[in-house]
Amino acid sequence: MKELFSKQTQAIFYNLHPEPIQHMLDYDWLCRRENPSIVAIVHKGSSGLHKAFFGSSEILIPVYDSIAEACKNHARADVFVSFASMRSAFVSTKEAILQDSIRTVAVTAEGMPENQTRELIRLAKLNNVWFIGPATVGGIKPGSFRIGNTAGSIESIVSAKLYRPGSVGVVTVSGGMSLEMYHIISQNSDGVSEGIAVGGDTYPGTTLLENLLRLHSYPQTKMLVMLGEIGGKAEIEVAEAITSGKITKPIVAWVSGTVASQFNSEVQFGHANARSGNDQESAQAKNTALKNAGAYIPKSFNELGKTINDVFTKFVLSDKEYKEPSQISPQLSTSFRRPTSIVSSISDDRGAEPLYNKKEISSFVSRSIGFLLNQLWFKGKLNKVGEDFLELAVKLMADHGPAVATAHNAIVTARAGKDVIDSLIAGLTTIGPRHGGALDGAAKWMLSCDQRKISPREFIDEMKNKGELILGIGHKIRTSLNPDKRVLLLRKFAKQNLKATRYLNYALAVEQETLKKKNNLILNVDGATAAIFLDILKSSRFTQTEIEEIVDAGMLNGLFALSRSIGIIGHALDQKRLKQGLYRHAWDDILYM
Ligand code: ACO
Ligand code: LMR
Fold first, then answer.
1. Before 134, cis peptide (omega within 30)?
2. What is the pLDDT of residue 557?
3. Is Transmembrane helix given among the entry's keywords (predicted)?
């Protein structure tokens, strides 16, 4: 059978739980892995980056809103480690199992309904996915990969020598007891080759036997250790596999719960499946069945270490081909960890040549401003149409004459003797909901109307009832008879470059309604830019959550500010060039009351 884990294993972690994520990364570091095992985190409703330590340096792990998106971007990640709650575990695990790239899922959630687990088991088998859990800490492949919190603290891992592989394949029911087993094994053999805790539910994703057979098939497994529990027939299946010759390597086994015979009535132990039901499911009966089949059974749990030692010495050490595990020392130097105060992911000036989104600036010499904006604003995720659109928008919104608020403020400021920067700032401060700063708000209602599936008329009435103006609609001088050329050019671009323009279509349908009231209530340059950019984001690789985050972050108003800065600076320089003196508004243009 193909191994599930290696030193190169890449995993997707479900639910942003910083502690187990850090524990996995600490284990990677301890084992001297070259790269962290967690390459992506999925957390519903989130996106962005999660900061964690790999050794003493910080790394950023991408966070995705959906499992499909994470798998698409990390096709080499074949392990899904789920810290989903009992409520969300079914849906998320099912989705993970159905992804082509996922080969192993490990689910820690406790209390999953049995019908849900059984359905997941069916799907996992159908899709050739190895399912570990639920209700388990998971497992560990020493030197390679650790699932979540398996094997406890770093100190405990070091003392059980779990940072390097040994020869003993271990399968337990209990996650808590697996740690105890790893310690016993480390003291009585050359250590663990892989350890899996299948979990204490009645229907584990994969059984004791399935995991034992898998470990049995690996050449580095020289012997097996199984720790079962009272209740169920899983250990009997193992005894049958020994009898039928499916398990040929030496196996030490113990079924715990022998104390149940001291009680007069049925006893339910900690795990769902650990009940003293009929006699065949008692710990004594199962230990006897295993012993009769040929497994090595100690007299009591206390003697388990000695039995492991005896079997290891007799069968493994005596083997002529036996080699000691390579003496990799654990990498412990993680003590100096200083969290950084600033995270930045778009540029770097530390090398010989500055980088924009990991690209040398010399490579930008021949590229467009749209390309540059894509790298610095979108980390290169926007498509070519998006780049061309940004370039066009920057050109079209750069200036609109000296009469508009931005230019006017800059002119007055420059004439008061202030420098270009102050004039620029003065101009920029006028950008807001009435002038040039309506793009974000326009995009918000477009997204909301689309989601709520309301008609343009219903939307207009809704706004009227609230007494609010529709951002992106209306102009001081442009009308349907005297249209805004910039809007026409933007629409032409959309028509020529986009297959689908659902946001623009909706915005134009709103305009049709508002024009019935007055002919200056056109879709203005802010509204048209917002609508078309939403259509572009939709056609790019952005998820709906990412699109909403871009809008909420204020990117669109930022685009107007960027573009208009060109014009504002122009006006400030113009006033200086024309040597214009201090401006004073004319008395006759003021109504004194
Ligand atoms: N939504 C709904 N009704 C509107 C809107 C609107 N966006 N704009 C004006 N109206 C209404 C007015 O309330 C008024 O109604 P009333 O006659 O019942 O009182 C009527 O339409 C006529 O309004 P005007 O006075 O002609 O509009 P005005 O010239 O004052 O406003 C402005 C123009 C400021 C652009 C306005 O339409 C507005 O605030 N729009 C929303 C903000 C916006 O998109 N700004 C960006 C403009 S483009 C740029 O700056 C680059
Ligand atoms: C602009 O681009 O500044 C405007 O469309 C506003 C205006 O009144 O011209």
1. yes
2. 98
3. no
